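agent> call fold_tool(seq_1)
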Amino acid sequence: MSKVKPTEVNFHKLSRVLELSFEDGTNFKLPTEYLRVYSPSAEVQGHGPGQEKLQLGKEDVNITQIEPVGHYALKLVFDDNHDSGIFSWEYLHHLGSNYEEKWQLYLERLAEAGYERKID
């Protein structure tokens, strides 16, 4: 059973931001690139610690579909055809609560890989 539950979920397609408000009063605005590169799927996370796969070229990714999964999660379908991975409410709350740290880690990993983000 979900420990945290959203009170509101809004997707802003033009700005590519998923906005979530939770019962605990927190509100997060999560960019689609961030959601895509931290997808909970095995394709991204691997099958255990240290097996994460760095996602490149996701600066312009968008969400084409959002499907509820029971009362505990969302399935996000991205326009790069990535549609595996279930984003539980706990995981989305975790991504929001740890955004700064996780985003910085992603940028550092890109730099270590010699990849330069293509941003407008």
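agent> call fold_tool(seq_2)
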Amino acid sequence: MSVTPLDYLYTRRSVKLVQEPGPSEEQLAQILQAAMSAPDHGRLRPWRFKLIRGAAIGRLADLSIAATRASGGTITDVKEASIRRWLAKVPLLIAVACHLDHENTKIPEEERMLSTGAAVMNMLNAAHMLGLGAFWSTGLGTYADEVTDALGFDALDYRFMGFVNVGTPVNVLPPMERPDFHDFLTEEWTGE
């Protein structure tokens, strides 16, 4: 039985625990190019990505943990150790932001953020189709101004939307049980 493109969509799941090898440069280009196919009202192309690899991942962890604590957030020593163990194996983080482009007042910010989210979904699907694991995280200092500023995504011009980690899955994960779409569907609206 051959695998169809829909099979890839049905079997995709978030894979937080990844390790080396990360994507090759060719695979990374394919993953990022997949983002360019996202729906995009007005062709604004609001998505912005920044690659974080190697020792920079550890520096991001330092910055994120310090910024979270400085803003009154709680990160216990156990949680910090868990974050550091996870990130020590991650070969690639892709920071994700939505560019707001204040010059354009026709298309609302929400539509730009939806477009950026669709771009990330395309990246997650592409990584899965290439046999890699990927996970979109909004932890790790996503809502701390110090982190977003350090990454070059100032709050005036961008909405920072987290990180995508990409690599080889640490474990083979069982298929995810998915709900039946009927549970989320209302029959046709007729206007009557």
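agent> summarizing second result for user.
Strands lie at 18-19, 47-53, 92-99, 133-137, 158-169. The longest strand covers residues 158-169.
agent> awaiting next instruction.
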